[in-house]
Amino acid sequence: MTADALAGDFFRFADDLTDDERATLGTVRHFLHEQVAPVALDHWTRAEFPHHLVPGFAELDIARLPYDDLGGPKARRLLIGFLALEIAHTDPSMNSFFGIHNGLAMGSIDLCGSDEQRERWLPAMARMELIGAFGLTEPHGGSDVARGLETTARRDGSGDDAEWVLEGDKRWIGNGTFADLVVIWARDVADDSVKGFVVHQDNPGMTTTKMENKLALRTVQNAEIALRGCRVPESDRLQRANSFKDTNAVLRRTRGGVAWGATGTMMAAYELALDYAKRREQFGRPIAGFQLVQDLLVRMLGNTTASLAMSVRLAHMQDAGVADDDHAALAKEYCTSRMRETVAMAREVFGGNGVILDYGVAKFFADAEALYSFEGTRQINTLVVGRSITGHSAFV
After folding, report:
1. Contact between residue 357 and residue 301 where contact means Cβ atoms under 8 Å apart
2. Which PROSITE patterns match (predicted)?
3. CATH number of residue 316's parent domain
């Protein structure tokens, strides 16, 4: 099954995919259309996660694609990006679930784990037999978490028999209520360095509480995590995580994925608005024939096309090994900002119907707010890029 171009891919960037890559994308799109789309709104409304879909995601065999030695060749970042776009195009919540597991959790182990740890966890995570989460953000630390990380790790004992005692709190941890393992980032009290630990859901000393009453990405199960004397063996400390630079290496890889997810979100909103404008009649004719509506549609398409172009270029740079923090930061800042504009214009096309969930656009309008904020706010990513182009840091 080969994926046809989406209506929002106006410049046909997906034509850059190979036949095999388009076949993979087509298989994923079929699953999303048949299995995810029919239940997405219901689970979003009830703020419940569709656990029954996980085996279907596993059968797609796409969780292994960003990584070497997991049952097949490593995929190009272009395909990885289009997969994120495709999932977000159906449901941004499910794209966040998959990105947290596949990007943040698996990425932490891939980049920061020893060879033994990679072999111990990654194959099962690639098969989605183990689901991962990523525990960095804290109640008092979001944008400043690099310098203000409050969760601590204290080494107890020596050698391979040593344990680490974790104390602190995490917040906004996607998948955190049900993940089999959570990568927890904590500051070593002995040398003030940031280290990573794989903490299992049933580990004594770790408790998770679902965050309620969210406006956006309601299907994602964000957790507040309390670590109280949580003991983790030395064998579960990520052996190559020794500073926040190592943490940031994970974020650099996944921040580009947020740009793709934002592009998929705005593309879906644009396509819904375009279809609605062709069907909705006022003053005796479809509103698609009115100049002001066409102006909104073309602006939405322009935002989507520019964001997709930037995402595609970033993917090529990542494959070539020349993408830096500032490239990923600009993509995240730009694409999520254009997404926020685009979903608002799409909602405007729907008029009053745009605030009713049944029409679809309202969910994308709400979900966009979360994508706009996580993985670095617009302002923080702006300062990352500003430092790069001026040579001057404007961080406080």
Report:
1. no
2. ACYL_COA_DH_2
3. 1.20.140.10
User: What does the pLDDT look like over 105-122, one tens digit per residue?
Assistant: 999 999 999 999 999 999
pTM greater than the 0.85 cutoff: yes
Helices (H) then strands (E): counts for the chain = 13, 9
- Among 288, 313, 300, 378, smallest CA distance to 345 is for 300
CA-CA distance, 330 to 232, in Å (whole number)?
A: 37
- In a domain, residue 8? The reply is no
Q: Are residues 108 and 28 both part of a single domain?
A: yes
Which domain covers residue 169, as residue numbers?
132-243
For residues 208 and 225, the answer to whether their CB atoms sit within 8 Å is yes
CB atoms within 10 A of CB 318: 20
Looking at the DSSP bridge assignments, the partners of residue 154 are 165
Task: Go through 351-367 and write b for each residue having 16 or more CB atoms within 10 A of its CB, e for each that does not.
Answer: eeebeeeebbbbbbbbb
Closest CA to 229 of 142, 144, 151, 322: 151
Length of the chain: 396
